[in-house]
Design brief:
Elements lengths: L2 H16 L5 E4 L6 H8 L7 E8 L2 E8 L3 E2 L1 H8 L4 E3 L2 H8 L17 E3 L8 E5 L5 E6 H8 L2 E2 L3 E2 L2
């Protein structure tokens, strides 16, 4: 694990522990897609909390959604009142988070980014996500995620 990955993981784990949030962390073979992650975790794709960093107008935001859905950019633009959105490129993602695509945990607060969460993620009692690397995953309750992160909840996905 790279130094930046380890630092993000340790910061996240410390914040969760300090907040009294129960979670389970697992170490597994490297995964690079949401489907691979669900398979190695033995969970549903819908319970995967996919974290996307998006440039909306002049600001970057984190959008969190179930891994079996895709971003509805029209809904996101309408929500944020901007004309253009695009995904952060690899260099921007590295600059903003210190992490590679697919390893970013769904906590914009770790990176000083506003977090928007699609309400469909709440279909799950527990959510699963990569935690700063392609080999570490965390499972926690959706309720604890909501309490800890306090994201703006708004529909921003296209259906499953």
């Amino acid at each position: 694990m790279a130094d930046a990955d380890a630092a993000i993981l340790e910061r996240l784990l410390g914040k969760l522990r300090d907040a009294g949030i129960a979670f389970t962390m697992t170490h597994h073979r490297p995964v690079f897609t949401s489907a691979e992650a669900a398979e190695v975790r033995g969970t549903t794709l819908h319970s995967g909390a996919k974290a996307l960093v998006v440039k909306a107008g002049e600001q970057f935001v984190m959008v969190v959604m179930p891994a079996d859905t895709s971003l509805d950019s029209v809904a996101l633009r309408r929500l944020l009142g901007c004309k253009r959105t695009r995904f952060a490129n690899r260099e921007e993602l590295l600059e903003l988070t210190g992490l590679e695509p697919g390893s970013v945990p769904p906590f914009g607060s770790l990176f000083d980014l506003p977090t928007i969460c699609d309400p469909d993620l709440g279909d799950n009692e527990s959510i699963n996500f990569n935690a700063g690397s392609h080999t570490n995953s965390i499972q926690m309750t959706y309720a604890d995620y909501q309490t800890f992160e306090s994201p703006r909840v708004a529909p921003v996905t296209k259906g499953r």
